[in-house]
Specification:
This protein has 605 residues and is an alpha/beta fold. The protein folds into 3 domains: 3-235, 4-Layer Sandwich (Glutamine Phosphoribosylpyrophosphate, subunit 1, domain 1), CATH 3.60.20; 246-436, Rossmann fold (3-Layer(aba) Sandwich), CATH 3.40.50; 448-605, Glucose-6-phosphate isomerase like protein, domain 1 (Rossmann fold). Helices cover 35% and strands 22% of the residues. The chain is built from 18 helices and 27 strands. Strands 3-2-4-1-10-9-11-15 form an 8-stranded antiparallel β-sheet, covered by helices on one side. Strands 5-6-7-8-12-13-14 form a 7-stranded antiparallel β-sheet, covered by helices on one side. The chain has a 5-stranded parallel β-sheet with strand order 19-18-20-21-22, sandwiched between helices. It is globular and about 80 Å long. The protein starts with a strand and ends in a 17-residue tail after the last helix. Bound molecules: glutamine hydroxamate.
């Protein structure tokens, strides 16, 4: 989502801010801007659309100064126009904001009454005017900033420059992440380690409610009450080099093809094939005593959670509840005493998932997270962290993070089953061997991608596409539909195959492609029968299967999959649905890596 970079520096700020904003482009944004402070004077350039537009403006009218703040905006309040782009400015300050000021309406009304006029529709602008009012009332910058923070409700990461204060920058964090970067004779603020990768690896992660007053030489963090606090310095692992596409056309394609390697790496951290055991990090509780598992996530991570439910229930015989993070804490969930809550998020910053985590923690639940970013807020707040080791995922539509999440969840399910005494050593050994086979089988699927490219051309111009599957492959159908929606903008739905006849079958005609996910398991006959029902209504069935050669007669297309066991098939079948979406999007010519309206790390609720 929005990216923030702030520099109190000793050399020209604009090129450095632009470079940092470029690193954040993958997160998705719709406008961008930079403000600098030069000899006490504030000035800014903003542009709707891509960073190139901002660069062009900066070439036409450069911004001088060694101090600056920059922002990539993913609009929540107000259209993605230049007027709504950050930084927002008054005659006294410039500010960038990530998050949502929930009480902005009442603040706006209050400010309007005092004669303030607003330039755009963002919630952020009220913060700019509030801070300006307190400065004009004669408060010191520090007091004015602290007083402003006390008036805000909602979520925010803020970064502020003040006119006339050449060696001063403020930042604040509540609900949205903010990181301080330490330089020599310079200091920085960023929305995450990636934002600061080219500037500093010595970072201070602000905690909830923290705010910071910075000069080039000093960094002072305060808590909500305004008390000075000490926060530790960590060394960032985020490499300062830009992640590149290699010889792929898009990051998403690169990440799809990387999957055998990253899944092997990920499994390598959790499997001991010699001993035939799953090895998880030490936990501050006994897994054997866990009475219930609750899995909570959003989007693709939520589908990984749905797959995990099948594994955990079947192997470990532990009751499992799964929910969407944005719904979870608003429905008075019933926690089991000593229950284990698992939160899944690629970035570890997803606002809804983080809020759900805190809800569970407050209720005394044990908290385990699966994240890709080790330095993330969720990783820092959990009792146990299972990193998925997917490496940086740049494509907005998640691919390799999904299959790595599945791999780690499969290993977890086996471990829990062993801890519960539901499987014996030879069974655990067999499951470990099965998981070990995943990367090779994934490579086999990828090897046949040309066939999927041909099939994808036939769905690229459809208005609606359905994905159907049963059991553990039902969530894969939903994930396939999500991928297609995200990057090709084709309306798609994932259904449990048996559910079609209860409504969605009304949509079927000769123009509706239906992707059938049907591995040769104990449900294949049922799934294929459902596909026959679709064909009887002229639906264009595309079958993904390692069997059903005979039943394939009359189907529009069939993609041959390798055979595998129940821990590996969901991981394998994720690949053809990713590739269908990818090639359909390429065929349509959409912006694959930065699809419209989407953001990578969703840090607003
Ligand atoms: N609410 C602000 C900032 C949006 C944001 O944080 N996106 O990630 C706006 O709409 O400008």
């Amino acid at each position: 989502m929005c990216g923030i970079v702030g520099i109190l520096g000793t050399t020209a700020a604009t090129p450095r801010i632009l470079e940092s904003l470029k690193r954040l482009e993958y997160r998705g944004y719709d406008s961008a801007g930079i403000a600098t402070l030069n000899a006490g004077t504030l000035d800014r350039r903003r542009a709707a659309g891509k960073l190139e537009n901002l660069s062009t403006k900066l070439k036409e009218a450069p911004l001088q100064g060694n101090n600056g703040i920059g922002h990539t905006r993913w609009a929540t309040h107000g259209e993605p126009s230049e007027a709504n782009a950050h930084p927002h400015m008054t005659d006294r300050i410039a500010i960038v904001h990530n998050g949502i000021i929930e009480n902005f309406r009442s603040l706006k009304a209050e400010l309007t009454e005092t004669g303030v006029t607003f330039e755009g529709e963002t919630d952020t602008e009220v913060v700019a005017h509030l801070l300006t009012r307190y400065l004009k009332e004669g408060l010191s910058p520090r007091d004015a900033f602290h007083k402003t923070l006390g008036r805000l409700e909602g979520a925010f990461a803020l970064c502020v420059l003040i006119r006339g204060e050449d060696n001063l920058m403020f930042g604040a964090r509540e609900g949205s992440p903010l990181v301080v970067g330490l330089g020599s004779g310079e200091n920085y603020l960023g929305s995450d380690a990636m934002a600061l990768a080219s500037l500093s690896s010595r970072l201070i992660y602000l905690e909830e409610g923290d705010w910071v007053e910075m000069t080039r030489e000093t960094v002072q963090v305060y808590d909500t009450t305004g008390r000075p606090v000490k926060r530790s310095v960590s060394i960032s692992q985020v490499a300062s080099t830009m992640v590149d596409k290699g010889n792929h056309r898009h990051f998403m394609q690169k990440e799809i093809f990387e999957q055998p390697t990253v899944v092997a790496q990920s499994l390598g951290r959790y499997l001991d094939p010699n001993a035939g055991k799953v090895t998880l990090p030490d936990m501050p509780f006994e897994l054997a005593t866990v009475p219930k598992v609750t899995l909570v996530a959003c989007g693709t991570s939520y589908y990984a959670a749905l797959v995990a439910r099948y594994w955990i229930e079947k192997l470990a015989r532990v009751p499992v509840e799964v929910d969407i993070a944005s719904e979870f804490r608003y429905r008075a969930p019933v926690y089991a005493e000593g229950g284990l809550c698992i939160f899944i998020s690629q970035s570890g910053e997803t606002a809804d998932t983080l809020a759900a985590l805190r809800h569970a923690k407050e209720a005394g639940q044990r908290v385990l997270v699966l994240v890709n970013v080790l330095e993330s807020t969720m990783a820092r707040e959990a009792d146990v962290v299972l990193p998925i080791h997917a490496g940086p995922e740049i494509g907005v539509a998640s691919t390799k993070a999904f299959t790595c999440q599945l791999s780690v969840l499969a290993a977890f399910a086996v471990n829990l089953a062993a801890a519960k005494g539901q499987i014996d050593d030879p069974q655990e050994d067999a499951y470990v061997a099965e998981l070990e086979s995943a990367p090779k089988l994934m490579a086999q699927v990828l090897h046949n991608d040309a066939k999927l490219q041909t099939i994808a051309r036939s769905i690229a111009h459809a208005r609606d596409v359905l994905f159907v599957g049963r059991g553990i492959h039902y969530p894969i159908a939903m994930e396939g539909a999500l991928k297609l929606k995200e990057i090709s903008y084709i309306h798609a739905e994932g259904y449990a195959a048996g559910e079609l006849k209860h409504g969605p079958i009304a949509l079927i005609d000769e123009n509706v492609p239906v992707i059938g996910i049907a591995p040769n398991d104990d449900l294949i006959d049922k799934t294929v029968s459902n596909l026959q029902e679709i064909m009887a209504r002229q639906g264009k069935v595309i079958l993904l299967s390692d069997n059903a050669e005979d039943e394939a007669e009359g189907m529009f297309a069939r993609f041959e999959m390798p055979s595998a066991g129940e821990l590996v098939t969901p991981i394998l079948y994720a690949i053809p649905v990713q590739l269908l979406a990818y090639y359909a999007a390429v065929e349509k010519g959409t912006d694959v890596d930065q699809p419209r309206n989407l953001a990578k790390s969703v840090t607003v609720e």
